[in-house]
Every structure is written in C-alpha cells, then in structure tokens.
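Backbone-to-sequence.
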C-alpha cells in the first residue's frame, strides 16, 4: 500500500512543478527575448532493499517506483524578429547573449534587446543596467548613431563608440535563469563573429500551441495522480477499519 502512496504522491509533485513551469512560459510569452523551459522527468528504478548480516547481503523486499524532476531545461532556439522604427531596439540573429551590467555590479546575459538611453547618454536595458561593450559601458549620446552587423557602434560623426559584447556560457559553466529572460553564469566565452541588427527585437520563443497542449496533459496527469492517491487512502482506511473490527 505504501508503494502506491509514494508513486501517486511523487506524480503529484512532479506535475505541480510541470504546471508551474508551463504557467511561467505562458505568462512570459510576450516577454522580449524570453526562453521557454521544460521539465525533464526521470523515474527511480525499483530499488532492492537488502540487509547485511553474517558477512553477506540478503534481499528483504523492494522499494517503490517514484517520479522525480530530473532537471528543468531551457530552450535556447532562436525566435522571430519584430521590426520597429526604434534605433535602440537590437536583436542577435546568431548564437549569444547581450551583457548587461546591473546596479549591484552583477553581469546579466539576455536576448532582450529593447534598449534605451540613460540621462548620461549610455545604452541601457531599462530597470537592469547599462549594455556592455568589449571595453565597458557603451556611450551613444543620442539616437543618431549607426551599427553594423558585427555590433560595432558609431556616433553621429562616424566615430567608433564601441562594440557590443556578445557572449555564450563557457563549457561546464553553471548558468542560472533569472526573471524577465535574464541569465547569470560563472564563466563566459565571447562570440567571435556575432550577427546583430537594430530597428528590431527578438520575440520570446514560447510556442503557445505547444504550451496549451502540455498544460492539458499536465492537468490530466495531476488529476489522475490525485484520484489514485484518494483511492489508496480510502482503501487503507477500510483495511484499518476491518482490522479494528476483527480485534
């Protein structure tokens, strides 16, 4: 009976996590540069329970089979570009991320290129910090600047203002997904030949048809596990009552 409890309860926990991830994807479907996530499940094999006695192991039973969340993976596939008339809107059409220096000194990576300009004339991602070039903050001064496909930015007089720093997480780097399509990592590698455009930004890569399909599947699985748990609880209650009546 306990095996059924463990299997049903673990299924509920996994599907609850799945529903949370799907809900977050749907909520951020309109967030610029957002990257969808997926719950990857795994199953503990039935584990043999043994006892060590007199110098050897003796099998005394088996453990329950339970579902667990193995990991939550991020889909880094590129999405479509929405064209605008705003020169501060930028998009990466190759691999890589923009780098933003936060107010706390932490550097964030993002595909969100809906930039702006601060009071000092530096390129910024509103609410996060200044956009980073290969030599630090990028000063543009105003909207009359130009940019080539490699991310080189020139001011109104054609003078070089800086090159966007486009990076990817290094191999074996630990990357953590934050809110609003931001990532932090402990090690990065510069993209040598990036491809960047302005007058446009990248949409999120959330596919609403896929998300709604997964949502329906997750809800059905959650209900099935809940029903199974309720049935097991009722059966256990009847068993206890029967034993009590006999005694």
């Amino acid at each position: 009976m306990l095996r059924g409890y463990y299997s049903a309860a673990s299924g509920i926990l996994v599907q609850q996590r799945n529903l949370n991830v799907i809900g977050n994807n749907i909520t951020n479907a309109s967030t610029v540069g957002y990257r969808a996530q997926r719950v990857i499940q795994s199953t503990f094999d039935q584990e043999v329970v043994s006892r060590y006695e007199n110098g050897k192991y003796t099998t005394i039973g088996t453990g329950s089979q339970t579902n667990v969340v193995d990991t939550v993976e991020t889909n880094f596939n590129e999405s479509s570009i929405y064209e605008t008339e705003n020169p501060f809107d930028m998009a990466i059409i190759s691999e890589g991320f923009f780098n933003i220096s936060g107010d706390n000194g932490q550097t964030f990576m993002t595909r969100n290129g809906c930039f702006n300009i601060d009071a000092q004339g530096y390129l910024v991602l509103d609410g996060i910090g200044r956009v980073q070039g290969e030599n630090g903050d990028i000063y543009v001064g105003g909207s009359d600047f130009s940019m080539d496909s490699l991310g080189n930015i020139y001011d109104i007089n054609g003078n070089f203002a800086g090159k966007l720093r486009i990076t990817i997480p290094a191999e074996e780097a630990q990357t953590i997904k934050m809110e609003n399509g931001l990532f932090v990592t402990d090690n990065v590698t510069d993209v040598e030949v990036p491809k960047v455009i302005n007058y446009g930004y990248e949409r999120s890569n959330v596919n609403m048809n896929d998300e709604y399909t997964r949502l329906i599947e997750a809800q059905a699985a959650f209900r099935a596990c809940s029903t199974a748990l309720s049935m097991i609880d009722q059966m256990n209650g009847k068993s206890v009552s029967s034993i009590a009546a006999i005694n």
